[in-house]
Amino acid sequence: MTPISTADDYAPSPAQWVRDQVEAYEGSAGRLANTLRETGLAIIIVTTKGNKSGKVRKTPLMRVEHDGEYALVASMGGAPKNPVWYYNLTADPDSVAIQDGPAPFDVSVREISGDERALWWERAVAAFAPYADYQLKTQRQIPVFVASRQS
Length: 151
Known about the structure:
26% strand
């Protein structure tokens, strides 16, 4: 387990809207900027370490939670390639934090497949219906991770 210190080497997203959302979410302890733009659909902030740079990265993702665990869906809107944060998770699955509300907590992640993926995919599409369309847009199977609190 390698906890992330967000004070160390934080590299904000190159996308201004992502930087703004992360800043507002964290600055308000999750009370503001806690939905995907104007959709009203809940998001979480996922913090990883860059697999090449080692810098701290923060990514808003759709909130797909079940019994205290979270699905992290690497959809990238149905693009033909995985998002950069996918590689951060696979390189260091124990250096991940999630903020779902007032404070972040450390998690371990694992990529899932088979029946377990099918179950979590169903939950993900229920939380954010466009995931189904994203899967139709790409030939790759969109990766799904399950994040569990570290003890």
